[in-house]
Amino acid sequence: MSDAAVKKKGRLKFRLSTVVITAYLLFLLIPIYWLIIMSFKSNSEILGAFTLFPDNFTLKNYQTILTDASWYMGYVNSFIYVSLNTVISLTVALPAAYAFSRYRFFGDNHLFFWLLTNRMAPPAVFALPFFQLYSSVSLFDTHIAVALAHCLFNVPLAVWILEGFMRGVPREIDETAFIDGYGFTRFFTKIFIPMIAPGIGVTAFFCFMFSWVELLLSRTLTSVDAKPITAIMTRTVSASGLDWGVLAAAGVLTIIPGAIVIYFVRNHIAKGFALGRV
Amino acid sequence: MSLRLEGVSKITNGETHIYPTDIELHKGTMNVLLGPTSAGKTSLMRLMAGLDKPDTGKIYWEDQDVTKHRVQDRDIAMVYQQFVNYPSMTVYDNIASPLKLQKKSAAEVDAKVQEMADLLQLTSILDRKPAEISGGQQQRCAMARALAKDVGLVLMDEPLANLDYKLREELRVEIPRLFEASGSIFVYATTEPEETLLLGGNTATLWEGRITQFGNAMDVYRGPVDETTARVYSDPPMNFISVAKEGAVIRFPDGQSTKLRDDLVNLPDADYQIGFRAHHLETGDNMDGVIEFDANLIVTELTGSDTFVHVDTMNERWIGLVPGLQDFAVGQNLKVGLNPANAFYFGKDGKLVAAPSHDPGKPGE
Q1: Domains of chain B, CATH where assigned
Q2: Measured between CB atoms, does B265 come within 8 Å of chain A?
Q3: What ipTM was estimated for this complex?
Q4: Model pTM?
């Protein structure tokens, strides 16, 4: 092949890959783009005209959300139970994952697999028992109720991801630490946790995300005091019909926390998706 | 100080890793556990360390039963084959960590760390993390941490096995020096007879979960109590051939016979196994006092200055170490020779009957 032919082929390849990736990104981003421009439009523009940019750029929708307690408290509530859930999940899953990764005990394999199957049941199955249970122990409409309910699927997930990361740490490190004189707690906090810090970050991210996007349980178990933003968004129908612009703004604000969190764990996320087994 | 194992055994998943073992190690001794892979060196060490609990038997440290003591309460340090350091800490903090746990003052800790760093040539990299230093330095760091504690028992489980040849040579020279400096009981596991001889001290040869012999390194090398020990303590493995003793001669399977050593004439007439090491297999023209055998060359391996020849003769596979780079053709016939003076004689039960005559006074320990 001549130089020109090589060059041409290279350029063609470059173009094809560019087209594919651009198209892919476009399809991914269209709904998000649409959501964002909607949030800067007035209701009449959203319903009246097909525009790619807001004709009358407005921040009124965001103003509504950030000043109206019935809106912004949704974010606060979500944040509270999501954080609670993440903390509880990690606290419970860290020792459990350590046990699974370091000890052989009766039925450990079955128990470990059974943990994962918990994730396979639809949350709707658990909505009824949780609702009844929490009502009878007066946990209904509290943040901790939602946080605990979400543990049902976040703890198994956290155990799985953490176990994968912990398995990557040679057992000899544990033994060396014990020989050096470390007690278990001190070893765990001072040596072991720093070694699997990326794993903990990824696990926290997954717990955060699943709890943040979960709608059914959080809506069922709350009414007023702990009502999450996702529930508010799906229920907001005012007298004048749907408030499109405000809903879009709420949607944008709901995406942001996830985007921020994902930024911090971006280098380890693939390992997390593989449940730590890479 | 002494470490005493009494009838210690270990069974994992129904498989016996260590058969009941008695051994006593004394203060200030270098003890090398020699055995092939999965002979039980690591298992035995883990029992000595207290990382694993024995299924039977007791472990005494200075005559005190420590079988059930936690690892943290045992006066030990351990270096693994893998380079085990705390990745989140610098080299300095790695070495300092066991000292800090002993609640030493900051000045004491610093002095000890500097001393260890000096001894192991880590001074220039004290502020680096383990991931940022070479494998040899990582292992030095692990050794420094182990020795900084000033413990009575230092266990080293093939510490040089994962290093390249050059570094291994370099560190191997330092181990006796570190041992001298510490005054502790050293236990060192290796698969290499050569390393065992270099380190000296005592050797315990292990084979399939049993200690076959324990004693001075040279004594064990020169007078292995049985075939197994001789095999373990030879690299390449010892060559064997069975012979029949008839009065004052021994007869080889190919019909040749030779005069027996005078001091062995009184042995009962029977079949014996003769064993000899690779460097005692002779080739070439100048073979005085040697019985020659026709052999078929199977493999040659060239090292830098010597040639290993694998030959088949009398239905046995022998391996010989021939000086110089030899230009043998595979499949060719080769005259190989054996000087009976270099031979070990083993009885039918595998026990040593006589060691080579030029090691006077060591007939089978």
Answers
A1: 2-227 (3.40.50.300), 236-354 (2.40.50.140)
A2: no
A3: 0.81
A4: 0.79
